[in-house]
Design a protein that fits this description.
- The protein is an all-alpha fold and about 375 residues long.
- Helix content is about 80%, strand content about 0%.
- The chain has 18 helices and no strands.
- It has helices spanning about 1-25, 35-45, 45-60, 65-85, 95-110, 115-130, 135-150, 155-170, 175-195, 195-210, 215-230, 235-250, 255-270, 275-295, 295-310, 315-330, 335-350, 355-365.
- α6 runs antiparallel to α7 (about 135-150), α13 packs parallel to α15 (about 295-310) and α15 packs parallel to α17.
- Residues about 1-30 have low confidence and may be disordered.
């Protein structure tokens, strides 16, 4: 029996690598047409083999080719539904794993195409179908991803509702660390919705729970978020207190990205208070760390803030130098929002020097 199994496995692997070879040779962009896909699938000896093949092919597709990704995802779903006609396959580990993996693929498409209703329907359908067969921890992870789906579409009220389901599960499991994380995540949604009091209460509850289990990384994140909330409300003193609390822990646990971001937050406060020297001192510390640890996002932010400083001193050539440096980094990431922000600031600097054509070009690009 074992030799038969190994023979079948070898045949499938040979077939798979042949498929990949055909896939890459079918056209210069490595795409298969509909006829070729059907031919490949017809050679697989079962629906589960076809599901595996489609997943493997999906990894070779350019993720920006949304039509191809969607076609594969819908084909996988159809095959899964065929397999699940047999009740004994409903809880099959491979089928459960395939449903969850395909959900990620389809949710990605819905996110990119801003199809919130389709994405929501798919999440609800998959969650309902796998709920009897997965652990509570896995179910909570599913709700986390579901909440993030809405969050990525700026649908914060919907995201909050889903994150609250995640919270209930972690409370039932008495998982204080994840409970604290859930409170903080829900507080983020309240902050985005403008529910300042609810957000503050959520962040403080998250801090309490994270302290109780010595979750230092989570605690530093909660401190930073609470600092951001106070800063947004003009409560500078409390903002600085919580930013420094976050920085102290992030330095201790060597969370370099977090340390850099929170230090930039402090620099922003100093800059708006007119304390340019203190702002520059902090920015130079972040720049040194960013070069050492290759923190591109942080380095891009440093250049933007240095551009602000020279812009405010009417030294437009220096400001433009730093804006351009930030733009180079953000193009390399790529960070479209950051790129637009750079173009906007460059347009402002060029307008200040009466270089109207350059100003207009960057304003149009941004």
């Amino acid at each position: 029996m074992r030799s038969v199994f190994l023979l079948k496995k070898c045949i499938f692997l040979i077939f798979f690598f042949w498929c990949v070879g055909c896939y890459s040779q079918s056209d210069p962009k490595g795409r298969l047409n509909a006829t070729e896909v059907k031919q490949l699938l017809s050679k697989a000896d079962s629906d589960t083999a076809r599901i595996r093949l489609l997943f493997d092919l999906s990894e070779a597709v350019n993720p920006n080719d949304l039509d191809s990704v969607e076609a594969i995802s819908l084909s996988i779903k159809k095959l899964i539904n065929q397999v699940c006609k047999s009740e004994k396959m409903l809880g099959d580990p491979f089928i459960i794993k395939s449903k969850l993996k395909n959900l990620q693929m389809y949710a990605y498409i819905c996110q990119k195409r801003n199809k919130s209703e389709e994405g929501e329907k798919e999440y609800l359908e998959v969650i309902e179908s796998v709920k009897p067969y997965v652990s509570q921890e896995k179910l909570a992870d599913l709700y986390r991803n579901f909440g993030y789906f809405f969050r990525s579409l700026s649908m914060y009220k919907k995201a909050k509702e889903i994150y609250q389901k995640m919270l209930v599960i972690y409370q039932s499991l008495n998982n204080k660390q994840k409970e604290g994380e859930s409170y903080s995540t829900i507080a983020d949604m309240d902050f985005s919705l403008g529910n300042v009091k609810e957000a503050e209460a959520g962040f403080l509850k998250g801090i309490e729970l994270r302290k109780s289990v010595n979750d230092e990384k989570g605690l530093s994140t909660s401190y930073n978020n609470l600092g951001n909330l106070y800063y947004s409300q003009g409560n500078i003193n409390d903002a600085v207190i919580y930013f420094y609390k976050a920085i102290t822990i992030k330095d201790k646990i060597k969370d370099y990205k977090g340390w850099a971001q929170t230090t930039i937050n402090l620099s922003d406060i100093f800059l708006k208070q007119g304390d340019t020297l203190q702002a520059l001192e902090n920015l130079n510390k972040v720049a040194a760390l960013s070069k050492q640890k290759d923190l591109k996002v942080a380095m891009g932010s440093v250049y933007i803030y240095k551009g602000f400083i020279f812009h405010g001193k009417f030294k437009y050539d220096s400001a433009l130098y730093y804006y351009k440096e930030s733009l180079k980094i953000r193009k390399g990431i790529p960070d479209k929002t950051g790129m637009a922000y750079c173009h906007y600031n460059m347009a402002s600097a060029y307008a200040s020097t009466n270089e109207k054509e350059f100003a207009k070009a960057h304003m149009d690009t941004g």
